[in-house]
User: What shape does this take?
Amino acid sequence: MEYAALIYTMVLISAADREMSDSELYSIGEIVRTLPIFEQFDVDQLPRIAEDCASMLGEDDGLEAVLRLVAD
Assistant: This one.
């Protein structure tokens, strides 16, 4: 879940302006592919994790739910 928390945080920042541009998503992908912290992460999981976060943000109290998951 540590990877998901980091990815959720990046998605949250990207969605702060209520838009997630292709360049922002590309940047998240590059971060995941290149930073040592993600060395053991299966990059094929990135789209699903990012979509899960975006879906949660679209729900009532979604921001709070994402923040709770990140804090946990």
